[in-house]
Amino acid sequence: MACGFRRSIACQLSRVLDLPPENLIKSISAVPILKKEEVADFQLSVDSLLENSNDHSRPDIQAQAMRLAKKLKCDTVVSEISTGRGTINFKINRELLTKTVLQQVIKDGSKYGLKSELFSGLPQKKIVVEFSSPNVAKKFHVGHLRSTIIGNFIANLKEALGHQVTRINYLGDWGMQFGLLGTGFQLFGYEEKLQSNPLQHLFEVYVQVNKEAADDKSVAKSAHEFFQRLELGDMQALALWQKFRDLTIEEYVRIYKRLGVHFDEYSGESFYREKSQEVLKLLDSKGLLQKTIKGTAVVDLSGNGDPSSICTVMRSDGTSLYATRDLAAAIDRMDKYNFDTMIYVTDKGQKKHFQQVFQMLQIMGYDWAERCQHVPFGVVQGMKTRRGDVTFLEDVLNEIRLRMLQNMASVKTTKELENPEETAERVGLAALIIQDFRGLLLSDYQFSWDRVFQSRGDTGVFLQYTHARLHSLEETFGCGYLNDFNTACLQEPQSVSILQHLLRFDEVLYRSSQDLQPKHIVSYLLILSHLAAVAHKTLHIKDSAPEVAAARLHLFRAVRSVLANGMKLLGITPVCRM
């Protein structure tokens, strides 16, 4: 593993620099495959060493690097030491590199890269991730797709690192929209349509009642009254609301199953309608609640009346708001889970909302507010199906499956599949996830069906194709070869490039764990797939000597294993045939 090599280099450096090896390990990094000028495997940045030292004179970095390199010696691990621009480069003994990396990949399996010393001393934490959070009685909008796949990735990564993760889906199941929906259903609703296609019917009712309320003040008034009845616990109003909620969740669970996503808890704003009243009392008792002329209640977070820092927490009729319910939910979760970190995954439009919620928790005396974190993401533009503008995720999933089935049918190399629809959906989802995760989460991006389904280039289809192809190699040539292998048979440049890239997996995982950006893992897996494609063309197994075939099969098996590990972290189910 990279770590054993890093530690070995760090130990030699520690003797020369008189620093503990632990202080040096993170300054030694595996050299990215695309930036290679030389054949070094690891690099020490002298600049990062000087940052850690007390020498503020910052002498010439290059001279420092050369002076330090002269004091270092090659040994059984390091076969060559050279200097670059402000760096010292280390080349690992080739046979040792081959044997160590391949054995470690096979031995660690799904834990490869996660047992690295980069993660040593990492305390196990209780982490709550709130994501997806669609609105009840509205169909699952594609706007919630990003929250769902990003939140799933963060939860997967934290879980893989050994943390105790609770996945919460905080449903928008309360608020004025239920006043509108309750009134709308009484005006335009049909019980039989509700039973046969609940979400479609509720969506149509919601659109219609919104139009009516805009033109007719009496509709808006009765919607307001219906929500007040809900807040006061009116049995009839609550029964209708409960029916809408149950039917919606049933539908969502089915869609999450298609996405390969699960939750530990389905919570919702409705859980906190009473607790939000306690929050208002607490704010009032601390002298933080101010009444406005309109009768609403606000909290001034600036303390000096700055309008941009005023947060409304109660309507004039005494009913709660989104912010109040979020405060109540955060306090309740702390009581229930005693979390070390709570992560909210929503679009960047809610950035100010969460800043205000965290600030209010702080001034209410909850020091743990600093453990709350908002992970914002940008907007997807231009996601349409052939039927026109897309509103619903299910339409997108169906479109993915249909297009992928058509693509697979037109490709001559497509295998006979037991379940072509399932394979098409898994490949299509991989395509969707990779397009979404390639850039920074905060970036907006223009959606393109053509780009999603390219089989060549940097796409999810290419990753799935590579995995299936490598799996097919193992199936064809069996595992009889895999007991042992001769490292001398894997010294071609294509083999060495793959080994050097496998060496970096722990650093990539570490980087994603620090900034919660999946793009590092995506980029790594795409490079790995390109390297595998080149190797597949040149490093033949068929007609090779048994010893050579066995070694190459070992290499391809390691690539497939790491590829599958990375894909699963991203929320992709690898396919074995396509």
TrEMBL record:
<dbReference type="GO" id="GO:0005524">
    <property type="term" value="F:ATP binding"/>
</dbReference>
<dbReference type="GO" id="GO:0006420">
    <property type="term" value="P:arginyl-tRNA aminoacylation"/>
</dbReference>
<dbReference type="InterPro" id="IPR014729">
    <property type="entry name" value="Rossmann-like_a/b/a_fold"/>
</dbReference>
<keyword id="KW-0547">Nucleotide-binding</keyword>
<comment type="similarity">
    <text>Belongs to the class-I aminoacyl-tRNA synthetase family.</text>
</comment>
<keyword id="KW-0436">Ligase</keyword>
<dbReference type="InterPro" id="IPR009080">
    <property type="entry name" value="tRNAsynth_Ia_anticodon-bd"/>
</dbReference>
<dbReference type="InterPro" id="IPR035684">
    <property type="entry name" value="ArgRS_core"/>
</dbReference>
<keyword id="KW-0496">Mitochondrion</keyword>
<dbReference type="GO" id="GO:0032543">
    <property type="term" value="P:mitochondrial translation"/>
</dbReference>
<dbReference type="GO" id="GO:0004814">
    <property type="term" value="F:arginine-tRNA ligase activity"/>
</dbReference>
<comment type="function">
    <text>Catalyzes the attachment of arginine to tRNA(Arg) in a two-step reaction: arginine is first activated by ATP to form Arg-AMP and then transferred to the acceptor end of tRNA(Arg).</text>
</comment>
<keyword id="KW-0007">Acetylation</keyword>
<keyword id="KW-0648">Protein biosynthesis</keyword>
<dbReference type="Pfam" id="PF05746">
    <property type="entry name" value="DALR_1"/>
</dbReference>
<keyword id="KW-0030">Aminoacyl-tRNA synthetase</keyword>
<dbReference type="GO" id="GO:0031966">
    <property type="term" value="C:mitochondrial membrane"/>
</dbReference>
<protein>
    <recommendedName>
        <fullName>Probable arginine--tRNA ligase, mitochondrial</fullName>
        <ecNumber>6.1.1.19</ecNumber>
    </recommendedName>
</protein>
<dbReference type="InterPro" id="IPR001278">
    <property type="entry name" value="Arg-tRNA-ligase"/>
</dbReference>
<dbReference type="InterPro" id="IPR036695">
    <property type="entry name" value="Arg-tRNA-synth_N_sf"/>
</dbReference>
<dbReference type="InterPro" id="IPR008909">
    <property type="entry name" value="DALR_anticod-bd"/>
</dbReference>
<dbReference type="InterPro" id="IPR001412">
    <property type="entry name" value="aa-tRNA-synth_I_CS"/>
</dbReference>
<feature type="domain" description="DALR anticodon binding">
    <location>
        <begin position="463"/>
        <end position="578"/>
    </location>
</feature>
<keyword id="KW-0472">Membrane</keyword>
<dbReference type="Pfam" id="PF00750">
    <property type="entry name" value="tRNA-synt_1d"/>
</dbReference>
<keyword id="KW-0067">ATP-binding</keyword>
<keyword id="KW-0809">Transit peptide</keyword>
